[in-house]
Amino acid sequence: MEDSTKEFINSTPLVSLLGIEITAIGDGEAAGRLDLRRELSGHSDRTIAHGGVTFALADTVGGAAMMSLIESPPPTIDMRVDYLDAGTGVLFAEAEVERVSRSAGTVHVEVFDDEETKIAVVRGVYDAHGW
After folding, report:
1. What's the pLDDT tens digit per position in 9-61?
2. Fewer beta carbons within 10 Å, N or C terminal of the chain?
3. Cβ atoms of residues 64 and 32 within 8 Å
4. CA pair distance 65, 105, nearest whole angstrom
5. C-alpha to C-alpha distance for 98 and 19, rounded to whole angstroms
């Protein structure tokens, strides 16, 4: 299931457009990456991650962690993002499911850049029934 889930997520249109890649998935955990490109920048003079790009990476990797447990794509119910720094270069995200009830799951996600600077801490809530 892990390979088919990774393949499913990596082939979705928005994930492909942004260049997000799920690199690991299983047992309530997932990891992913995004090579930051100029067109994804939130600054006109420097290439730094736009907040929406950081959010999309965290949401995708958090959803992948949840999907590893419920075996269906989980709709996002709510996301809380604390932006800590501006990401540059390659962005990495690591997610861990903290709890799953009958109706929802809570996932903790941390996003780093390639200099190992933590750029965001995220709490995502996903529908436990999937699509």
Report:
1. 989 999 999 999 999 999 999 999 999 988 888 888 888 888 899 999 999 99
2. C
3. yes
4. 10
5. 27
